[in-house]
């Protein structure tokens, strides 16, 4: 027998073994498209528009189905009911973090966002406690955001009403809020150290913070210098990029819909006026503005599939057996764009969050920060920043587009892992 024939037999056996293992495994999992060996269902998923692919597959296989992204299965949850049943009703069992190889290599399972089990619980609990100690949820944090909003306005004034790309400035503002929490100090937008920090964030490089080492000699503790560094890095990355992208998308939508912007400014004039800074107390008296902010987050669908989850134990879910460690993909798009809860979900309409009397209307389908045990740690801060930054901008400036409104495209340029708005120019004209 020649070496070539032997190699062919070995490869054939491995191929058949792979098929048998997949077939045996698939019998217990939810239904889904037949995977190819090694690559799975990759060819059936548009990586530039994952949400659309999941929507099409859900029409064939239902609200709970299985995809093979490579050789490993991932259970997809599509629609409010399946997402709620898994992430809320069975929150503990679905609280694991699914594997993302590139982040696994960088983060080594440390920090908050990409960690699991005891380490995740300890670091999440510690981070929430630390943020509260630094003033999260208190007036002191609001003061910091208000101060940053005023600094943001001053930077925008320097544009002198000329067309500009707001990306950099809108990235500086939320980053400076995190700096003021962690370092107890904000930075000038041209400060070299601050620019270096922004550059490191953008390159996803490790960010060093104060190393808390009360327990550096305890080999079993989660509070290692390295773990705390990654946790601080997670706060910077999550607290800067997501908020700045949402702010940028917000301005694009407000440019595209001047009638909405005018109504928000009218409410600002009525409730706040021109001579004091907006505060969080104002929000409850501004139902239209509140609805606009919710609709922006619903419409842009920033993280269409959130971050992958994983089941922490073998679990029977809707008569299927999902083995421990299986990746779970929860489609946030399917909840935020549910056409029964939000009629014409592809249309930007603040009325989605207003009742017939014009009062703000809450919705359980509003899940831009995910839901369940893995809901975003910084949700409260992000909501505060969006309200205070945008109302302060609209209190001080009219927004003008240097191009015709019909030429403004609000479709994301990338709708894979993150919905990124297209580049655009905007003029901030002082009021």
From TrEMBL:
It is an enzyme of class 1 (oxidoreductase). Keywords: Endoplasmic reticulum, Heme, Iron, Membrane, Metal-binding, Microsome, Monooxygenase, Oxidoreductase, Signal. Pfam families: p450. The keyword Heme applies. Residues 1-25 form the signal peptide. The keyword Metal-binding applies. This is unspecific monooxygenase. Belongs to the cytochrome P450 family. Its cofactor is heme. It is found in: Endoplasmic reticulum membrane; Microsome membrane. Its EC number is 1.14.14.1. It comes from the Eukaryota.
